[in-house]
Specification:
Blueprint (H helix, E strand, L loop, with lengths): L1 H9 L26 E6 L2 E7 L2
Antiparallel strand pairs: 1-2
């Protein structure tokens, strides 16, 4: 958190109370290309769809 705070300060911004910081991902990164359609979902949340432009 200290590193992130310093790094954000270099861009003139920072963390605010109640900001959420995710330390990682639940899956690998997916390279996006224009036209790709991504769909994701889980049992606890409704599905989400994203179209890369």
């Amino acid at each position: 958190m200290a590193w992130l705070t310093r790094a954000l300060a270099e861009f003139g911004t920072g963390l605010k109370a109640r900001d959420i910081v995710l330390a990682g991902s639940v899956h690998r990164a997916v390279p996006l290309r224009p036209g790709m359609l991504l769909e994701a979902g889980c049992d606890a949340l409704p599905p989400v769809t994203a179209h890369a432009i």
